[in-house]
Amino acid sequence: MADVRPPVCVIGAGRAGLGVLLALRHAGWPTELYSRSPGTCPLPSAPCHEFKDLTGPPGPRILLLAVPDRAIAAVVSQLADTGLARPTDVVGHLSGALTSSVLDRPVRPFAGRFSAHPLHAFAPAAAPVPMPAGTAVMVEGDAMGQSLAMRLFASAKAAVSPIDPERKPLCHAAAVIAGNLPAALLLAAARGLDEAGVPDPTGVAIRLADSMLRNWATLPHPRALTGPVARGDADTLRTNLAALSDQPDLARLYADLSSRLADALHEAGVLDEVKWQSIRREMRDGTRP
User: Fold this and answer.
1) DSSP letters of 130-167?
2) FRET partner for 163 with CA separation of 20 to 30 A, picked from 14, 97, 112, 196?
3) Residue 1 scores a pLDDT above 50
4) What is the CATH T-level fold of the domain 8-167, as seen in this structure?
């Protein structure tokens, strides 16, 4: 399999499945898309087939499961029990929380297995775009599966790295912190902007966050950050807390995150000892009952 590109059968037409399929197709891999509901697939350039039609000419294939975590074990069982999977197939999944061991069976009918977790927030399935070049993809599996998965994703210009299966849950938790939880902050910010009378509060919050991320991407160091914590401006932080006094939960969140950011900036040498201690004191005192 090292000298040829076996067909990639992507099973699941959700965000991740479509984004990975498009990236692999652009990289020159022969791809097919399968779904239990092929009529709902929004990708005219990639006809979607019925899951039960997972057949084709003999030879090795890559069966890539892009289904919800809770469905992986059932899909694997169906592949094995119905003969849709062949002994020459390598089977993988895209879950960040599960390892490739979920693909094991008492008598495993696969030539190899792997998990490959792209650290990327995929676009909605209604408007899919290819997984971008440079996306970090963490891979683990047996020798055959891991080797093939690393070759597969590297060909799509992903930044591929092996990961210890025991460390996948930590990687996934950290990815959720970066890729999902900021939405809670932006929703809270949008509510505050709305109450303050700012037009298009959600758009303003998103563009503000985007400008911060772009600055940080240009200079990947805490020195790229701006705002009262980065300036060591404890007085402004105290004023902000006062403005949030009628929302104590949000005030506590503001104080906690400000303290955490101050700690990181102090450790990076951006904040001196005096400013750091001043911020810590204000954030502690400002949230006391």
Assistant:
1) PPPTT-EEEEEESHHHHHHHHHHHHHTT-EEEE--GGG
2) 14
3) no
4) Rossmann fold (3.40.50)
